[in-house]
Structures are given as C-alpha cells and as structure tokens.
Write a structure and sequence with these properties.
Pathway: Secondary metabolite biosynthesis. One of its GO terms (molecular function) is oxidoreductase activity, acting on paired donors, with incorporation or reduction of molecular oxygen. Its cofactor is heme. This is Cytochrome P450. This protein has 533 residues and is an alpha+beta fold. It is built from 19 helices and ten strands. The chain is globular. It binds protoporphyrin IX containing FE (HEM).
Length: 533
C-alpha cells in the first residue's frame, strides 16, 4: 500500500496534469474571448420581427478622430446609403442619401430629433443646455423659441445695418493690414472677428474694435476649444461609460471649458444688465430678451449663460470657416474669380459694392457661395440626431437611443447630384435662385442645394443670419480685391482644424485692390466702439 499509492499518485500526476492544464487554458481563453469578442466585434441586433439593424463594419471603434468623414464615405460605398457602426457601446446609423435623410430626419422628425447626452459635450461642457445639446423636450422647444426671436428674417432686418457695417469693417481692416494690397496677410483672425462681432451684436448689443482685445481673444479661444472637444466621434469616453470615472485630459479640458464659458458669458450678461440698470436704451439683443423674461420663462443662471454662449460657440467658426474656405478656394481658381469680377463690373460697376438687395442680380456670386458651402461645409459630421423610439425603415431596424449622423461629406460628393464632385464648379448652381433656407423646404430632396445647415426640426436656427453674413463678406471681398496666394506659397485644402466645425489650416493671401474706388469707399466709414468691452 505504502509503495502503491505514491506510484499511482505520481502516474496520475504525470498523465493528467498536462491535460487539465490544457483544458484549463482552453477554458480561460474561451472565457476571456467571450468577454473580449463583444468589445471588439459588432453586435447584430434584430427586433422582435427579425428586422436586422443596417449592415456595417465588423469591428467596434473607440473613436474616429482623424478625417472621420473619409471613413464614413468609404463605408457608405461598401455597406450602402444606410449603414450602422458601433462606437464602443453606442450604435450609430449613418445616413448617406438625401432621400433617406428626408424620410428619417424630416418626415419622422418626431422620432429622430433628440440629441445623445454626450459625456464631454452635453454633460460636462454644456450641461444639456445651449440648444444644440438639449434633448428633444420642452426645454429645447423653449430655448429654441427664444433664440429664434433673434434669428428670424424679421428680427434680422432690425440689425441689418450692423451686419452691413461689420462687412465693411472686415474688408477695411484687411485692406489696411495688407498695407493697401502690398503685403500678404493671414486672414483667419479678421474673418473670425467679423463673425464674432456679428454674434456679439445679436447676443449682447455690443462689438469689439480690436483684433487683440483680451475678451475677443478669450471668446475666440473658447470657441476654438469647443470645436476641438466636441466632435461627435472624437472621445472613447463618450461611448464607454466606465471611462467616465477616469480623470482623462479630455474630461479636465471639458470642465475647464465649462467654467470658462460661465465666466466669460456670465460677465458679459452682467454688463448688459448694468447698462439696462443704468437706464441705457440697450438695442434688442438675446441677453436683453433673457433678462426681461427671465422670471416668466423660469430661466436659471446656467440657462442664460449657455444660451448666450450658443450663438458664439455655434456662430463664429462655422461662418468664418466658410469665408476662409472661400478665400482658399478662390485664390487657386483665377478663372472663377475673373468671371465673378466680370459679373460685378457688369451689374454694379465700380461706384458701389454689393448690398443684401443685390444678391438676386448676381447669380454667379450666389453660385460661388453655394459651391463653397457644398465643397467645404464647416461640418462634415454635423451635430448628430438621436432616436427616441424603435423604428423600422425599409426592413432595417433602428432601435431607440441610436445616434444618427448625416454623412455630409458623402452627400456633398455624390456623383449623381453633383457631377465631378471634387471639382470646384460654381456653375453647377447657376439657375438656383433660392436661398438656402428656401431650398431646405423643397419637397424633392434631390432638388435641395446642399445640406450644410442640417435637416428637420434641428436645422440650424441661424440659417438666415449665416447666409446674409456670407453674402456680405464674400461678395464684397470679390468686388474689392484680386485674391491670390503669395508666390511660392500654396494653400492646402486637405487638412483642417477642429473636430466639429472645421476651419482651414493657417495660410496667407494677397489682396490687391481692383481699382481706385476701393480706397474711396473704405475710407468712408470710421470704426466705432459701441461699448468698451
Ligand atoms: C455657415 C454657417 C453655419 C452652418 C453651416 C451651420 C450648420 C449647422 C448645423 C449642421 C447644425 C445641426 C443641424 C441638425 O442637427 O440637423 C446647426 C445647429 C445649430 N446652429 Fe448652426 N450653422 C451655421 C451658423 C450658425 C450661427 C451663425 C449660429 C448662431 C446664431 C448657429 C447656431 C446654431 C444652433 C444654436 C444650433 C443648434 C440647433 C438645435 O439643436 O436645435 N449656427 N448649425
């Protein structure tokens, strides 16, 4: 017994141990894979009737940060005009066809008009406010109604002279900065200040007369940081809830940005209040409306700061971005510029530059603006919509709480709608006499000019103001200058800055006055400070 038992034990040990070790490792691997697989591979959901979610890439992604629009366009070619992609635990459905965009975002707007409460953008920076990040609820309706009072076409007439004046100052400041056309300049700061001043006027009934004013710098810096932090596909922390407990740099930057917004815009609201308390007849502006209706509308301090911030965060780099893309494009298309100059000279001559009313008589300039916005929309991945009910579309299941992205880069480069889509061809819009706002209401989605302002109930509420800003700046730049890139300096149209709204990377241009009337006209107006900021 004494001899046998150890022998049996040792033979068992020698024959069974490797087997059990193998089985154990197989089991452990299977267990690990059962945890890891769902993290790596897509989940193919079905509804109770067996409708599958739209097809899409087999892997899950943590983020898409570098040129996400290219991946979305490439996937749309592989998986079709309605495909799905998993970002961490979040299902995204990507719309790359205008008919589908209309069916879902417009015709079924009651289901597809909410916003995902992104951890970085909605929860940390904007705290569910600022219109753009508010879920589809009564607060959104109320805040959007208040904002629309300042952004509708009738309201815009009230400050039309200010928009006109700011366009004058834009051209004038660039003219002097170039030493009357002799030196190249970086246009970005001037253009951003133009957009900022328009927003300061509408929001706070004020403007800034300096390009280096500390407040201008701070407001612009906040807007840049906002663009950098709020891409809809940028942060893994937005798609994997567990990461929200880790103190990441993105979370820290988002908290700082929230505090910065509250500080800067809070201080600016208090200045308007001080003016009103001192008996000044402050012109109509968003903050005046907020202060006068605060009790009746039950707005708390954070609502007020975030509403004031909405116009500046949403309205500076979107508009200035388009003007910068215009300058970049036009400087490398002399034939387009020559045709624009010929139209301006033929219709207006050289004694007066374009005003808002002239837009109907200058179809080629209008076409240039539409083409810039098509070819270089500031948002390639616009603020996504979010579904609030299960829905089946063409046999495909879109569950409640799905994020929907309008794949603007693919839509704006659709061969059928825009032949030769990567070429800059303003003439494709000749014959389109509608404004973007009018065009967005057309019944046939294929007839719409472009989709840069979004779609449905969340469509950009500032579409009228933005169009007017673009018209005044671009038509006057063309009237006044011959626009070129400096010799031996090419302007890149490839890269860009910003994860949500995109602006071109810094470049220089030369602005040579086209005739003597430029100086006479520009000297007619002195820059004023309506209020010391
Ligand atoms: C060329 C200029 C502009 C472009 C291309 C643009 C584009 C957009 C887009 C694509 C959206 C999302 C629409 C959607 O969800 O379907 C949007 C929303 C918004 N935009 Fe603009 N925008 C521009 C200028 C402005 C300006 C000047 C302001 C400031 C007054 C502004 C304020 C907003 C706000 C507050 C929203 C959120 C609307 C909501 O969620 O209900 N935008 N914009």
């Amino acid at each position: 017994m004494v001899n046998v038992i150890p022998k049996m034990g040792s033979s068992t040990l020698h024959s069974i141990t490797p087997l059990s070790a193998l089985m154990l490792s197989v089991l452990l691997t299977a267990l690990a894979l059962s945890f890891v697989f769902p993290l790596i591979f897509r989940r193919n959901l079905e509804d109770s009737d067996g409708h599958p979610i739209p097809p899409g890439p087999p892997l899950r992604y943590l983020y898409l940060r570098r040129r996400p629009e290219r991946a979305l366009r490439a996937w749309s070619m592989t998986y079709g005009p309605l495909f799905s992609v998993w970002m961490g635990n979040q299902l995204f459905v990507i719309i790359s066809d205008v008919g589908i965009a209309k069916d879902l975002l417009v015709s079924n707007g009651a289901i597809f008009s909410s916003r995902k409460q992104y951890f970085i953008k909605s929860q940390t920076i904007l705290r569910g406010r600022s219109i753009t990040s508010t879920a589809y609820n009564d607060t959104w309706r109320q805040h959007r109604r208040i904002a629309s009072q300042l952004l509708n076409p009738k309201a815009i007439q009230g400050y039309a002279s200010v928009l006109d004046y700011e366009a004058h100052i834009l051209i004038r400041s660039m003219y002097y900065e170039t030493a009357m056309g002799k030196l190249p300049i970086y246009p970005a700061h001037f253009v951003a200040r133009y957009a900022l001043n328009n927003m300061l006027t509408i929001t706070f009934a004020t403007r800034t007369d300096s390009t280096t004013d500390p407040l201008t710098e701070r407001a612009l810096a906040l807007a840049i940081e906002f663009n950098d932090l709020t891409g809809p596909l940028t942060h893994s922390v937005d798609f994997i809830e567990l990461l929200q407990y880790i103190p990441t740099t993105a979370r820290l930057r988002a908290r700082r940005l929230h505090d910065g917004i509250m500080d800067v815009y809070g201080a600016m609201i208090m200045r308007v209040k001080a003016r009103m308390d001192a008996g000044e007849d402050v012109p109509d502006c968003l903050v005046k409306t907020l202060l006068l209706t605060q009790e009746q509308e039950k707005l708390d301090w954070e609502d007020m700061c975030m509403l004031a911030a909405a116009f500046n965060l949403g309205g500076i780099h979107s508009t200035s971005g388009v003007i910068l893309w215009f300058l970049a494009l036009i400087s490398s298309h002399p034939e387009v510029q020559a045709r624009a100059h010929a139209e301006l000279d033929g219709v207006l001559g050289r004694d007066a530059w374009p005003s808002e009313e002239d837009s109907q008589h200058l179809p080629y300039i209008r076409a240039i603006i539409k083409e810039v916005v098509r070819a270089h929309a500031p948002f390639w991945t616009p603020p996504p919509h979010f579904s609030t009910e299960d829905f089946v579309y063409n046999g495909m299941y879109i569950p409640k709480n799905t994020v929907l992205i309008l794949n603007l880069y693919a839509i704006h480069h659709n061969e059928e709608k825009y032949p030769d889509p990567f070429a800059f061809k303003p003439e494709r819009f000749l014959g389109d006499s509608l404004t973007c706002a009018e065009s967005s209401k057309l019944t046939n989605p294929m007839d719409r000019d472009h989709w840069a302002f979004g779609a449905g109930r969340r469509i950009c509420p500032a579409i009228h103001v933005a169009e007017r800003e673009l018209w005044l700046a671009i038509s006057r730049l063309l009237w006044a200058f011959d626009i070129r890139s400096p010799p031996d300096e090419s302007i890149s149209l490839e890269g860009y800055n910003g994860q949500s709204s995109r602006t071109p990377q810094p470049y220089r241009i030369t602005l040579t006055p086209r005739h003597d009337r430029v100086q006479t006209l520009l000297e007619a107006e002195e820059e004023v400070t309506l209020m010391k900021l």
